[in-house]
Amino acid sequence: MTRRASRPAIIASIVGKDFREFSRDGLYIFLSILGLVFFAATYYLVPDSVDETLAIGVHQSDMDEVFDQFESGSDGLELVQYASAEELAAAVTDGDEVMVGIAFPDRFVDSAAAGEQPTVTVYTDAAVPPEISGAVTSMVREIAYALTGDGLPVTEPAEESIVLGTDRAGDQASLRDLMLPMLVFFVLMIETFALSSLIASEILNRTVTAVLVTPARVSDFLTAKTIYGTILTGGQGVLLLAVLQAFTLANVGILLATVLLGAVLFTGIGMITGAAGKDFFSTLFYNMLFVLPLMIPAFSVLFPGTAAAWVQAMPSYPIIDTLNEAISYGAGWSDVAGSLVVALAWAVAVYVVGLLVLRRKVRTL
Amino acid sequence: MNLSRIWVILRKDLALGPRSPIFLYAVALPVVMTAVFQFAFGSLFEPAPRMAIVDDGDSQITAEVSEMEGIELTVLDGADDLRRGVEANDYDVGLVLPAGFDDAVRSGEQPPLEMYVGGESLASNRMILSVTTIDLVRQVEGTTPPIDVELVESGDAGLPISVRLVPVLVMFALFVAGAFVPASSMVDEKIRGTFTAILVTPARITEVLTAKATLGVLLAFAMSLATLLLNDAVGSNWPHLLAVILIGAVFLALLGLVIGSLAKDGAMLFTIVKSSGILIFGPVIFYLFPEWPEWIARLFPTYWVIDPIWRVSVLGEGLGDVWVSLAVAVGIGALLMLLVVRLSRRMLAHTTAAS
After folding, report:
1. More confident residue, A235 or B271
2. How far apart are CA B347 and CA B337, in angstroms?
C-alpha cells in the first residue's frame, strides 16, 4: 500500500536533506560560525566614532577672553592651552595631544592694536595636511583682524540658512556604522559561492536525476533549492545583524525585508552560476563574473556623497543602500520605500532568470 | 620523493593552469587591485575637504583654491547644482561667486558671501573651508594683515597612504596566487576524481602536494613581485627582497595546502576562506592605521611574512634587521608543514576508502 506524498512534504524532504548534509559536516558548521565571529570581530575592530574636531595647541598671555569666545563659536575646534611657547613646540613635536599649535607673543593684543606687526609662530608636525596648516595660519590672521577692529570685507549669511540637509555635526555615521551593511552584504554574497557550488555538484554528480526518479518534480527541486538558498544566505545575514545588535524596533522590519530580498537575489545568482558551470572552476568563474561587480555598490557607501548613476543602476545597490540608510541613518519605511521597490524588482528578475536557467539545465540531464 | 614525478604533475598544472579562471584572477589581480585601491580607496583613509564653486565672474578666489594643496575643488555651472550637491554630501562646502564679486570686495561694498555647508560634512572640514575662504576674500581685498605668521615644521611627514596600501596589495597577491590557486586546484581534482586517478599511478601523495605547493610558490612569488613593481615599492636591496618574498610565497602555499586538504568541495573551500579571511588579512589593516597598537598585528600568523616584505621593500631594511620575523615565519611554516603531513595522511585514507 502506498501513500501519495504531498508537494510541500516532498519539498520539505529535499530541503531537509540539504540541511542534514550541512549539519552533518561538523567542520562546515564550525567554520560558518567562526566566519560570523570573525565578521563580528572585524566590526568591533573598526573605530566607532568620528573625530571631526581639530585640536590646536595655544600659548598666549593676554587673550583668554578672545579664545573663550572663539572656542564656544567653533564646533570643529578644540583648543589646548600651554604655559610657554617651548612647551607648545615640544607638544607638537611629540604629536600625542596636538599636531599643530599657535604661539602668540607676549602683549600680542596691545602690539597688534598699535599696528606693530607682531609675529605669531605656527608650529606644525610635518604629517599635518597642508589644508590644516593653511587654515590655522588663516585663522591666526583673522584673529588679528578682529583684534584690530578690521571687519569682514563681506556680509556673512545667517548660519541657519547655510547648512543644507540634515545637520550631522557631532553626530556623524562612524566607519563602524558604515561597515555593518557591507559585512551583511558580504555574508549574503559569499553564500552565493557555497550555494552555486552545491547546485553544480548536484548536477555533476547527477544527484538531481536521482531525486527526480522519486515522486519529486523539477518544480519541487527548484522550490527546495530556493528555500534552502534563501535560508542559508539570509539566515546568516540575520544572525550577524542580531549578533552585532543592529536591530531596533524601528528598523527590524526593514532589515528583515532587505535581507530577504538580498538572499533571494543571491539565490537567483547562485542558480544561474551553479547551472552554467561545467565544473568547479567554471562555476567559480561565473560566480566571480556576477559577484565582483555587485561588490562595487557595497564599497560606495563608505564614501561620502551620491554614488555614480551606473553604480545606482546595479542590482545590489538598492539592497546595500537600504541597509545603510536603515542602520546608519535610522531611515524609516517611507524613506526606503523607493529603494525597497527597486530591490524587489531586481530580486524577482534575477531569481526568475535563475529559476529558468536551472530548470532548463535540470530538464536536459 | 621523486623529483621527476613532481615535475610531471607540476608541468600538467602549469599547462592546464592558464585555462583556469583562478589563474587569470591571480595574474590580473595585482593590476586591478592596484588600480582600485590606489585610485579609489586612497581617499577613503585620507579624505580631503571638498569644495564646489560657481564662479560667474572669473574670481581670484577660484584660481587660488584650484592651486591649493589638500582641497578638492569642483567648479560647477549653476547655483542649483551646487546646492543639490552640497545637500547630497557630494561637497562639504559650496561657494557662489557672482560676477563682479572681487570688484565689490575691493571697493569695500561688503557683498554678501553666498556660502553653503553640507549637513553631513565634518565640523573640522567646515571650519577649514570657511576660514580658508575668508582668508582668500581678505587677499582679494588687498589689505596687509596686521601680523606676520611664521610657520615652523617639525617631525617626519610619515608615509603616504599610497605606500601604506602596499602590504594590503601584496597580501592579496600572495593569498590568491600562493594559497587559493593550489587549494582550488586540489578541490577541483577531488571533485573530478582525478586526485584518485593520480594516486593509482606511482605518484605519492607527498609528490602531488609538493607539485601543488610549487605551483603556488612560483605564482605567488611572481605576482607579489609584480605588485611591488606596479606600486614602485621594490626598494634597492633586491637579493634580500627576493628572499623575503620567497619565504612569504612558501608560507602562503603551505596555507593553501592546508585549506585544499581540509576542503572536500567548493562550498567548504569558500567557507574556509570566509572564516579565515580576517586571520590572513588582519595584520595588513595595521599598516593603514599606524597609530593602532602593533602588538595586536603580531598575533596574526601572516604578520610575520608581510612585515619582512614591508620592511625590506618600503623601509629599505635588510635580512639582518628582519631575521626575527623571518624565524617566526619559518617556525609557523614548519607547523603548517606538520599539519599538511597529517591532513595528507587523512586525505589518502579517505581517498583509498572511497575507491
Report:
1. A235
2. 15
pLDDT digits (tens, 9 = 90+) for A235-257: 989 999 999 889 999 999 999 99
> What does the domain layout of chain B look like in residue ranges?
3-42+160-354, 47-141
* Cα separation, A320 vs A326, whole angstroms: 10
Rounding to the nearest 10 degrees, give the CA dihedral for residues A190, A192, A198, A199: -170
Q: Is the pTM of the predicted complex or chain greater than 0.95?
A: no
B126 with A200: Cβ contact below 8 A: no
Domain B47-141: give its CATH code.
Answer: 3.40.1710.10
Q: Contact B146/A165, CB-based, under 8 Å? A: no
A54-162: CATH class: alpha beta
Set of chain B residues whose Cβ sits within 8 Å of the Cβ of A50: 122
Write out chain A residues lying below 8 Å of B143, CB-based.
150, 153
- Domain ranges for chain A, please list them: 10-47+172-363, 54-162
Q: Which helix (H) or strand (E) holds A75?
A: none
| Percentage, residues of chain B above pLDDT 70 | 95
Res. B132: pLDDT tops 80: yes
What average pLDDT does this structure show over B120-141? 89
CA A343 to chain centre: 17
Residue A347 distance to chain B (closest CA, Å): 23
B127, B265, B285 ranked by CB distance to A54: nearest:
B127
pLDDT of residue B44: 59
Nearest to B149 among A112, A141, A152 (CB): A141
| A298 close contact with B: CB closer than 8 A | no
